[in-house]
Automatic annotation (TrEMBL):
Ranges in a coiled coil: none
MF GO annotations: DNA-binding transcription factor activity; sequence-specific DNA binding
Protein name as catalogued: AraC-like DNA-binding protein
SMART domains assigned: HTH_ARAC
């Protein structure tokens, strides 16, 4: 079963050198600079449990919610874990880098909390274009953060949080980019974002977690579109209904849990949002022609 990309695995797997505190499970912050980014490729994201601040240089097409925005130049972009998005690199770019951090990394030190900031609010416009002076300043802040992260200084994260706040307040003094990109197939875009949002719901990592977004209406609400529009768009692009996609994904995750976890069938059924194991068994047999217990014996 594909694992959620935790901050520790995201950081350790992709970047060298990395903050050695990752080994202790305490990593709350990571940063990637231009030299560690690959250019000219489409980037997609799995489910994340962290906030992200990106510095883009070049032409990038950002899809989020029901909108697409083209960045042409240098931009500072803010993402929160609740909003699904995808990126297309439109040309080989001098990609500036990005930083990621957990909500607790900020909230444990600032009483107002990260969700109180307009930059990270659902529905906020996330893109801020930089002039040459601002670009130079942001480049400098990113480099300071990376340098501080690699030191042994006991209070380095206090310094890093100060730099993070500097980026946040720099953007809050500016006006966000508001020009929506008009040349994207709207149905294809919303379908891609729907698939991204569905993908973010998995895997279920603990029997105490529950998959709640089982209806098309739940995704439409999150994406800010009418459920009928979402259904028509997804069916038009993929040939399958929104409900079919959700059911297929539940089935895939159920199979993975049965094959690769030690959870009992009751735990699996509740974690996937079923009211009781009998409902889960009926659903599973409908989609696989097997009952869960017999499938588990195939391991």
């Amino acid at each position: 079963m594909k694992k959620t990309e935790s901050l520790e695995s995201f950081y350790k797997d992709k970047f060298t050198p990395y903050d050695q505190s990752a080994n202790s499970g305490k990593t709350q912050f990571a940063i990637v600079t231009n030299e560690q980014c690959s250019n000219g490729a489409k980037i997609s994201y799995r489910r994340h449990d962290f906030y992200k601040v990106s510095l883009f240089k070049g032409r990038v097409l950002l899809h989020y919610g029901d909108k697409s925005i083209e960045v042409n130049g240098t931009a500072l972009v803010f993402f929160n874990p609740d909003i699904p998005y995808t990126l297309d690199m439109l040309e080989e770019s001098n990609f500036g880098g990005y930083l990621i951090f957990r909500e607790s990394y900020y909230n444990d030190y600032y009483k107002n909390g990260i969700r109180g900031l307009t930059l990270f609010a659902n529905g906020a416009k996330p893109v801020f274009m930089l002039n040459k002076t601002q670009e130079k300043l942001v480049d400098s802040i990113f480099k300071k953060m990376q340098a501080d992260l690699l030191t042994d200084y006991e209070y380095k994260h206090d310094v890093i949080r100060t730099h993070l706040n500097e980026l946040i307040h720099l953007a809050m003094k500016m006006s966000p980019l508001d020009k929506v990109y008009q040349f994207v197939d709207a149905k294809a875009r919303i379908t891609a974002i729907f698939n991204e949002l569905l993908d973010r719901q998995f895997p279920i990592e603990s029997p105490s977690e529950e998959f709640e977004m089982r209806s098309a209406a739940a995704y439409a609400d999150k994406l800010g579109v009418h459920v009928n529009y979402l259904n028509r768009a997804v069916k038009s692009v993929t040939g399958k209904t929104t409900t079919n996609h959700i059911s297929d994904r539940i089935t895939t995750e159920a199979i993975a849990m049965l094959k690769h976890s030690e959870w009992n069938i009751s735990q699996i059924s509740y974690s996937l949002g079923f009211e009781d194991p009998s409902n889960f068994s009926h659903f599973f047999k409908k989609h696989t022609q097997q009952i869960p217990s017999s499938f588990r014996l195939l391991k």
